[in-house]
Design brief:
The protein has 19 helices and 16 strands. It is α/β, with parallel strands linked by helices.
Length: 485
């Protein structure tokens, strides 16, 4: 199989071989269940955990903001451990590599470890730039080694940790493609073929019908079979009610104002204090209280699914290792094992269940929209209905659902969203619209800066230095797009 260079012209391999990357996994075949070793017929219930890992890239490699080198926030923390919580940097370093230590240890004990991993592209690049090759080597061992890979499932992500509701749809597609490029360049095309699920940054799901459609279409076009969804960011199709059986897979169905429809399988992440729940392995203990449910006339085990930051917070840093090891040892060979998402779905579909058998859901608030217009009525009528609903109910919004109900990815961030939109517009006008080839060195440089600038941290972490970082990266992205072509 063709192998990709991890770096091209000093930048991570994030573009240039789109056709090759798109061909990987185009005809999906069972890859996880056949190596599982779990007897699905005797599983009463199961639990799945995922660890999200991310560090932004920041213009902090120097005293002058306008000329500072773009470095990992982790590097800044390492070099400035006397400031704030930066003393956690060495622990973060271990958090990024420790799954590569735990999984082989447990498999050599005869156990059945399972964990899903999602790392942003900015983190991958930052680790390499810092010389922390031990992290990549540790992860590569459990990703490509046939003795260990059944324990770890990688989830796709947007390269720059962009939030889908407020990232221009054409840019979000570039993030998704870039992550796949970068992952394949690090771990190989065969490893990329095993990446079937997608983990959106901040669990943010667009609920504007046209944006939601483009988001799911992007995932499907890039070979993803399923996506992690936050429980309270969706509703049942037809009623608008909340989910009834959240521990079963669902079918996320989205239609746009032009009448087009696309769907994808959704695994539901339940509400709760994410980091604490995963660090203390709560999904396993919840699963132990459940029994098989009926789905499409078949008896199936429910899957309790949860994701959390894999490095943030004392509970995750300190309590997770011991708890993970204990639970893997206890659950292995039991009727409530740990399972990964694609592994579970492959077993499920092996029973004869199909995607159409799954309960249909849609992004939150869409029931209100579709009760007034129909898909195909056009964007102008959609915009009118959305405005009417906003006036009638202050709780109605189309800014997307996220991991928390009190975060808006739009309101209050106009001073950074404006520069983001300017950078995106410049990239579109100067790069995408003229059809600049994706293997052009200036294309890669402009794309790298654009995606780096669209990291969610520049909004979520509040006003001040972080919005200054965001605006500076946007300035660089816009300058490269405007001047280098």
């Amino acid at each position: 199989m063709t192998e990709l260079a991890e770096y091209v012209d000093g930048l991570p391999n994030i573009c240039g071989q789109e056709d090759l990357i798109a061909s990987v996994g185009r005809e999906p075949k069972p890859l996880h269940a056949r190596e599982s070793g779990i007897d699905f017929n005797h599983v009463r219930s199961a639990a799945a955990i995922a660890l999200h890992m991310h560090q932004p890239l920041i213009p902090a490699g120097g005293s002058d903001l306008h000329s500072a080198d773009v470095i990992s926030n982790l590097q800044y923390m390492m070099e400035n451990q006397g400031i704030g919580d930066n003393h956690n940097a060495p622990v973060f370093h271990w958090c990024y590599k420790r799954i590569g230590e735990f999984v082989p240890q447990l498999i050599h004990e005869g156990k059945q470890p399972r964990v899903m991993l999602e790392y942003s592209g900015t983190l991958f690049h930052g680790l390499r730039k810092m010389g922390l090759h031990d992290v990549i080597d540790s992860l590569k061992n459990v990703t490509v080694n046939p003795d260990y890979r059944r324990g770890v499932e990688w989830l796709g992500a947007p390269w720059g940790h962009a939030v889908a509701p407020s990232t221009p749809v054409q840019d979000y597609r570039l993030h998704v493609q870039a992550w796949r490029h970068h992952f394949a360049a690090i771990f190989g095309l065969e490893a990329l073929e095993r990446v079937r699920g997608f983990s959106p940054s901040e669990m943010a799901l667009p609920n504007h019908p046209d944006v939601a459609y483009e988001y799911i279409k992007t995932l499907r076009d890039n070979g993803y079979q399923w996506v992690l969804i936050q429980e309270h960011s969706v509703e049942q199709v037809g009623t608008g009610h909340g989910l009834e059986r959240k521990h079963l897979p669902h079918r996320l169905v989205v239609s746009n104002s032009h009448g087009e429809t696309v769907s994808i399988i959704a695994l539901i992440k339940t509400q709760g204090s994410d980091t604490k729940l995963v660090a203390q392995m709560q999904p396993y203990y919840e699963a132990k209280s459940l029994s098989r449910w009926e789905l499409a006339g078949k008896s199936v085990p429910p899957l309790v699914t949860q994701i959390a930051d894999g490095e943030n917070g004392g509970v995750m840093m300190n309590e997770f290792p011991g708890k993970f090891l204990d639970v893997v040892r206890e659950s292995s060979g039991s009727d409530t094992p740990l399972m990964n998402g694609s592994e579970y779905l492959e077993f499920l579909f092996g029973l004869g269940i199909t995607e159409n058998d799954l309960p249909a859901i849609q992004p939150i608030h869409q029931h209100k929209i579709w009760s007034r217009i129909a898909p195909g009525d056009g964007p102008e009528k959609l915009a009118k209905v959305i405005e009417e609903l906003r006036k009638e109910d202050h709780r109605f919004h189309v800014e997307g659902g996220s991991w928390t109900n009190d975060i808006s990815w739009v309101k209050g961030y106009e001073n950074v969203l404006g520069p983001m939109e300017d950078a995106s517009s410049a990239f579109y006008e100067k790069v995408l619209k003229p059809g600049v080839k994706t293997d052009h060195p200036a294309y890669r440089k402009a794309l790298f800066h654009l995606m780096t600038a669209q990291t969610s941290c520049y909004r979520y972490w509040g006003q001040g230095l972080w919005t200054d970082y965001g605006r500076e990266l946007c300035r660089r992205a816009q300058a490269i797009a405007s001047n280098d072509f």
